[in-house]
Amino acid sequence: MSTSGFVPPAYPYDRLAPLAARAQAHDGGVVDLSIGTPSDPPPPAVLEALAGSGAERGYPPSAGSVGLREAAQGWMRRRLDVEVPTSAIAACIGTKELVAGMPHWLRLRDPSRDTVLYPAVSYPSYAMGATLAGCRAVPVPVDAQWRIDLSAVASDDAARALCLWVNTPGNPAGGLDDLGTVAAWGREHGVPVLSDECYAEFTWEGPRRSILAHGSKGLLAVHSVSKRSNLAGLRVGFYAGDAELVGYLSELRKHAGLMAPGPAQHAAAVALGDDDHVEVQARRYRRRLERAQHILSEAFDIKAALPGGGLYLWFPAPDGDAWAFTERLAVEGGCLVTPGEFFGPSGAGHVRLAVVAPDTRLDLVAHRLGVV
After folding, report:
1. CATH top-level class of 12-41+277-368
2. pTM of the entire structure?
3. How far is it, in rounded angstroms, from Cα 79 to Cα 346?
4. Which residues on neighbouring strands pair with residue 335, listed in sequence order?
5. How many whole angstroms separate alpha carbon 85 and alpha carbon 114?
6. Mean pLDDT over residues 175-186, rounded?
7. From 6-10, 55-59, 130-134, 280-284, the region with the lowest mean pLDDT
8. What percent of the chain has pLDDT over 70?
9. Closest Cα to residue 49, out of 229, 309, 191?
10. Which of 26, 218, 271, 283 would bridge 229 by S-S if both were Cys, CB 3.0 to 4.6 A apart?
11. How far, in Å, CA of 238 to CA of 98, rounded?
């Protein structure tokens, strides 16, 4: 039966299945460096909190428990040097559902606008959220340092924009946007700026940063415990900033029944209250970035630059053929990485490598490739 309705495209990582099978054939199996899935242990205190919250019987607050919002407030104060009232903080079920749903909710708020702006090389859910909402997904070019270039936004696109997504440190390339300039652009054009800051704890160049250092009007910062605390399976994040916008979103999400599970909220509050485990994790990721950089250099003479932040190496593929190099790594190293086109057509010809596997697994890739 034919249909003229929406047909979901293939999920990007499903396209890697044949190469994953070839990598899996190696003794020791596939070393998956494609998806940014944490593999290191979360803090024991978080697991204890998850098991003993007592929050599993009743319905949890959709906007987040007082404990979770206070923990998020304290974390932003300590780590990002920004002060946000708990009334301007709300929980989400991980940040991916927030990213994908945001255009739909914002269009309900302002049906006169239909355009989502996002970096041309970026997390695919920014564009997919626009598509799922029936909006225009308009990529904004990035510069040579993988920072968004707002001077390239056409005036018509700015006038029709529901929102502008930015991501600092950026996925996949680790770029660090000038968030002050971004905030000013959004206010000048009356466009809400949504700043995805889920990698903020892993900022390698300069201090950790948030767009909320430049005020809150018209701005939202989006955060997650997935990467900072190795809790991607917990599915808890939060958004903070413009009090009117947070209030609108939290009320809408309440009506839709969107709520992070109570035990997960309790555990996330414990995670946000502890910084020591994040410092340990940051050292792990920095060490692995340097190890992967060495492996690529020794095995393939690829000079991959360290990112400004994040947990990915982003580098040009030999001869510009990202799929060929992805296949070569799977066959020769038993290692799975991501072709850059997954992050937009402007990313074609590049490769992303996520340093999420334990050190012993990176050593196994090095051994297979003959690197000491």
Report:
1. alpha beta
2. 0.96
3. 33
4. 31
5. 31
6. 98
7. 6-10
8. 99
9. 229
10. 271
11. 9
From residue 250, give the alpha-carbon distance in Å to each of 16, 62, 139.
37, 7, 27
How would you classify the pairing of strands 219-224 and 237-241? antiparallel
Distance separating alpha carbons of residues 296 and 350, to the nearest angstrom: 14
Distance CA 135, CA 140 (A): 15
Q: What's the pLDDT score for residue 4?
A: 77
With tokens 């919250």, the residue in question is 53
Q: Where along the chain do its domains lie?
A: 12-41+277-368, 44-272
Mean pLDDT calculated for residue range 233-244: 98
DSSP 8-state secondary structure symbol assigned to residue 286:
H
Please determine, for residue 1, whether its predicted confidence score (pLDDT) is greater than 60: no
Q: Which residues is 313 bridged to in the sheet?
A: 353
Give 67: exposed, middle or buried? Use CB within 10 Å, 0-12, 13-18, 19+: middle
Task: Dump strand ranges (E) for 81-205.
Answer: 89-92, 115-119, 136-140, 161-167, 193-196
CB 134 within 8 A of CB 103: no
Query: How many other C-beta atoms lie within 10 A of the C-beta of residue 80?
Result: 21
Return the percentage of the chain with pLDDT > 90, whole number.
96
Closest CA to 334 of 51, 3, 24: 24
Q: Among 214, 160, 154, which Cα is nearest to 182's?
A: 214
- pLDDT, residue 10, reads 87
* Separation CA 109–CA 11 (nearest Å): 29
What's the pLDDT at 372? 87
Spatial contact of 314 and 307, defined as CB atoms under 8 Å apart: yes
Query: 371 — phi, psi (to 5°)?
Result: -105, 135
Q: Which whole number is the average pLDDT over 352-361? A: 97
Which residue bears the tokens 């302002």? 110
Handedness of CA 241, 233, 117, 355 (dihedral sign): positive
